Amino acid sequence: MNEPTVPIPEKRRLDIIDTALLRQREKQALKWLVILFTFSIFYEFRDFFQSPLLKPNFPVAELNLAKRRPFPEKRIHRLSQALRDLQQAFPLIRDALKPQIEILEWLKKRDPKMAGKEQLNSRLENVLNSIWRLSHSQLWEDRKPFMTVDAEMLTLFTLLRKSPPDEQELPILTIGPRPIGDREPAGRDLFQFHEAEKPSKPLSGGDEK
After folding, report:
1. Cα separations (Å) of 179 from 172, 184, 185?
2. Blockwise average pLDDT, block size 10, the chain, 209 residues
3. Helices 147-160 and 117-135 meet at what angle, rounded to 10?
4. CB 107 within 8 A of CB 76
5. Cα dist. 72→66, 75, 110, 121 in Å?
6. What does pTM read for this prediction?
7. What residue ranges do the domains of the chain occupy?
8. What are the CA-CA distances from residue 170 to residues 27, 132, 136, 138, 167 (Å)?
9. Cβ distance 55 to 65 under 8 Å?
Protein backbone atom coordinates (compact mmCIF):
# COMPACT_ATOMS: atom_id res chain seq x y z
CA MET A 1 0.00 0.00 0.00
CA ASN A 2 1.49 3.31 -1.04
CA GLU A 3 1.77 6.05 1.59
CA PRO A 4 0.19 9.34 0.70
CA THR A 5 2.73 12.01 -0.32
CA VAL A 6 2.48 15.62 0.74
CA PRO A 7 2.98 17.94 -2.18
CA ILE A 8 5.79 20.50 -1.70
CA PRO A 9 4.63 23.98 -2.47
CA GLU A 10 6.52 25.75 -5.19
CA LYS A 11 8.82 28.58 -4.12
CA ARG A 12 8.20 31.90 -5.61
CA ARG A 13 10.86 34.37 -6.61
CA LEU A 14 9.97 36.79 -3.83
CA ASP A 15 10.35 34.04 -1.24
CA ILE A 16 13.85 33.24 -2.48
CA ILE A 17 14.86 36.94 -2.35
CA ASP A 18 13.48 37.32 1.18
CA THR A 19 15.40 34.25 2.33
CA ALA A 20 18.67 35.58 0.85
CA LEU A 21 18.19 38.99 2.48
CA LEU A 22 17.41 37.35 5.81
CA ARG A 23 20.62 35.31 5.71
CA GLN A 24 22.63 38.41 4.78
CA ARG A 25 21.23 40.29 7.77
CA GLU A 26 21.98 37.35 10.04
CA LYS A 27 25.59 37.34 8.87
CA GLN A 28 25.93 41.08 9.53
CA ALA A 29 24.40 40.70 12.98
CA LEU A 30 26.75 37.81 13.75
CA LYS A 31 29.75 39.87 12.63
CA TRP A 32 28.86 42.76 14.93
CA LEU A 33 28.27 40.34 17.80
CA VAL A 34 31.75 38.88 17.32
CA ILE A 35 33.26 42.39 17.30
CA LEU A 36 31.43 43.37 20.47
CA PHE A 37 32.45 40.12 22.13
CA THR A 38 36.11 40.74 21.23
CA PHE A 39 36.01 44.27 22.67
CA SER A 40 34.37 42.94 25.81
CA ILE A 41 37.12 40.35 26.26
CA PHE A 42 39.85 42.99 25.86
CA TYR A 43 38.08 45.31 28.28
CA GLU A 44 37.57 42.67 30.96
CA PHE A 45 41.10 41.27 30.75
CA ARG A 46 42.98 44.47 29.89
CA ASP A 47 45.31 44.06 32.87
CA PHE A 48 46.42 40.70 31.60
CA PHE A 49 47.08 41.95 28.08
CA GLN A 50 48.99 44.95 29.43
CA SER A 51 51.18 42.86 31.74
CA PRO A 52 54.95 43.18 31.34
CA LEU A 53 55.15 39.51 30.40
CA LEU A 54 53.64 40.30 27.01
CA LYS A 55 55.81 43.40 26.52
CA PRO A 56 59.40 42.41 25.84
CA ASN A 57 61.89 44.96 27.05
CA PHE A 58 63.56 45.60 23.70
CA PRO A 59 65.45 48.88 23.20
CA VAL A 60 63.55 51.06 20.77
CA ALA A 61 65.39 53.73 18.83
CA GLU A 62 64.04 57.20 19.50
CA LEU A 63 62.84 59.08 16.48
CA ASN A 64 63.84 62.58 15.38
CA LEU A 65 66.88 62.61 17.64
CA ALA A 66 70.18 63.18 15.87
CA LYS A 67 73.13 61.33 17.29
CA ARG A 68 75.95 63.48 18.56
CA ARG A 69 78.96 63.03 16.41
CA PRO A 70 82.21 62.46 18.26
CA PHE A 71 85.09 64.86 17.90
CA PRO A 72 87.02 63.82 14.72
CA GLU A 73 90.39 63.11 16.32
CA LYS A 74 91.42 60.54 13.71
CA ARG A 75 90.59 62.89 10.85
CA ILE A 76 92.59 65.67 12.49
CA HIS A 77 95.55 63.30 12.78
CA ARG A 78 95.25 62.40 9.09
CA LEU A 79 95.13 66.08 8.11
CA SER A 80 98.16 66.83 10.27
CA GLN A 81 100.09 63.99 8.62
CA ALA A 82 99.05 65.21 5.16
CA LEU A 83 100.32 68.69 6.00
CA ARG A 84 103.67 67.27 7.14
CA ASP A 85 103.98 65.40 3.85
CA LEU A 86 103.14 68.64 2.04
CA GLN A 87 105.91 70.43 3.93
CA GLN A 88 108.44 67.93 2.66
CA ALA A 89 107.13 68.01 -0.90
CA PHE A 90 106.68 71.78 -0.98
CA PRO A 91 109.30 73.48 1.26
CA LEU A 92 108.15 76.93 0.15
CA ILE A 93 105.20 76.87 2.56
CA ARG A 94 106.89 74.96 5.38
CA ASP A 95 106.95 77.94 7.73
CA ALA A 96 103.41 78.99 6.79
CA LEU A 97 101.98 75.58 7.74
CA LYS A 98 103.89 75.20 11.00
CA PRO A 99 101.41 77.18 13.20
CA GLN A 100 98.42 75.30 11.75
CA ILE A 101 100.04 71.92 12.42
CA GLU A 102 100.75 72.93 16.02
CA ILE A 103 97.11 73.92 16.54
CA LEU A 104 95.92 70.63 15.02
CA GLU A 105 98.19 68.67 17.35
CA TRP A 106 96.83 70.68 20.27
CA LEU A 107 93.23 69.98 19.23
CA LYS A 108 93.94 66.28 18.81
CA LYS A 109 95.02 65.98 22.45
CA ARG A 110 92.06 67.88 23.92
CA ASP A 111 89.16 66.16 25.65
CA PRO A 112 85.82 67.48 24.29
CA LYS A 113 84.13 66.91 27.65
CA MET A 114 86.66 69.05 29.48
CA ALA A 115 87.47 71.72 26.90
CA GLY A 116 83.99 72.01 25.36
CA LYS A 117 83.10 70.52 22.01
CA GLU A 118 81.68 73.77 20.59
CA GLN A 119 84.89 75.68 21.31
CA LEU A 120 87.03 72.94 19.79
CA ASN A 121 84.86 72.84 16.67
CA SER A 122 85.11 76.62 16.32
CA ARG A 123 88.91 76.48 16.69
CA LEU A 124 89.10 73.66 14.16
CA GLU A 125 86.93 75.59 11.69
CA ASN A 126 89.23 78.62 11.91
CA VAL A 127 92.30 76.47 11.23
CA LEU A 128 90.61 74.78 8.27
CA ASN A 129 89.64 78.15 6.79
CA SER A 130 93.22 79.39 7.12
CA ILE A 131 94.70 76.29 5.44
CA TRP A 132 92.02 76.35 2.73
CA ARG A 133 92.80 79.96 1.79
CA LEU A 134 96.50 79.16 1.68
CA SER A 135 96.08 76.08 -0.51
CA HIS A 136 93.63 77.82 -2.87
CA SER A 137 95.67 80.94 -3.35
CA GLN A 138 95.90 82.26 -6.90
CA LEU A 139 99.69 82.25 -6.61
CA TRP A 140 100.01 78.48 -7.10
CA GLU A 141 100.17 77.41 -10.72
CA ASP A 142 100.26 73.67 -9.93
CA ARG A 143 97.87 72.54 -7.19
CA LYS A 144 98.60 68.81 -7.38
CA PRO A 145 100.56 68.78 -4.08
CA PHE A 146 97.47 70.13 -2.29
CA MET A 147 95.01 67.45 -3.48
CA THR A 148 95.42 65.15 -0.46
CA VAL A 149 95.15 68.04 1.98
CA ASP A 150 92.03 69.33 0.22
CA ALA A 151 90.36 65.91 0.45
CA GLU A 152 91.00 65.70 4.20
CA MET A 153 89.75 69.24 4.76
CA LEU A 154 86.55 68.59 2.79
CA THR A 155 85.85 65.57 5.00
CA LEU A 156 86.31 67.67 8.14
CA PHE A 157 84.12 70.44 6.73
CA THR A 158 81.40 67.84 6.12
CA LEU A 159 81.68 66.51 9.67
CA LEU A 160 81.42 70.05 11.03
CA ARG A 161 78.50 70.77 8.68
CA LYS A 162 80.31 73.81 7.34
CA SER A 163 81.29 74.90 3.86
CA PRO A 164 84.77 75.96 2.73
CA PRO A 165 85.41 79.69 2.42
CA ASP A 166 85.19 81.42 -0.92
CA GLU A 167 88.36 81.75 -2.91
CA GLN A 168 89.92 85.20 -2.77
CA GLU A 169 90.50 86.82 -6.12
CA LEU A 170 93.56 88.92 -6.82
CA PRO A 171 92.85 92.65 -7.02
CA ILE A 172 92.86 94.13 -10.50
CA LEU A 173 95.81 96.48 -11.02
CA THR A 174 95.38 99.46 -13.32
CA ILE A 175 97.96 99.65 -16.11
CA GLY A 176 98.86 102.80 -18.00
CA PRO A 177 98.80 106.52 -17.27
CA ARG A 178 96.55 107.64 -14.48
CA PRO A 179 94.67 110.94 -14.62
CA ILE A 180 95.97 113.55 -12.24
CA GLY A 181 93.31 115.55 -10.50
CA ASP A 182 93.37 119.22 -9.64
CA ARG A 183 95.62 120.09 -6.78
CA GLU A 184 94.85 122.68 -4.20
CA PRO A 185 97.12 125.74 -4.20
CA ALA A 186 99.80 125.89 -1.58
CA GLY A 187 98.83 127.68 1.58
CA ARG A 188 102.14 129.54 1.86
CA ASP A 189 104.41 131.05 -0.79
CA LEU A 190 108.01 130.26 0.05
CA PHE A 191 109.36 132.91 -2.34
CA GLN A 192 107.43 135.82 -0.88
CA PHE A 193 109.47 137.90 1.51
CA HIS A 194 107.92 140.22 4.03
CA GLU A 195 109.63 143.45 4.98
CA ALA A 196 110.50 143.79 8.58
CA GLU A 197 108.44 146.32 10.38
CA LYS A 198 110.27 149.42 11.43
CA PRO A 199 110.80 149.61 15.18
CA SER A 200 108.80 152.28 16.92
CA LYS A 201 110.55 155.23 18.55
CA PRO A 202 111.29 154.81 22.22
CA LEU A 203 109.27 156.96 24.52
CA SER A 204 111.26 159.73 26.24
CA GLY A 205 110.49 161.75 29.30
CA GLY A 206 110.58 165.18 27.54
CA ASP A 207 110.06 166.66 24.10
CA GLU A 208 113.06 167.26 21.88
CA LYS A 209 114.13 170.82 21.46
Report:
1. 17, 16, 18
2. 64 77 88 90 76 57 55 86 88 87 87 78 89 83 84 88 74 60 61 54 50
3. 150
4. yes
5. 17, 5, 11, 9
6. 0.47
7. 19-54, 73-160
8. 87, 16, 12, 7, 10
9. no
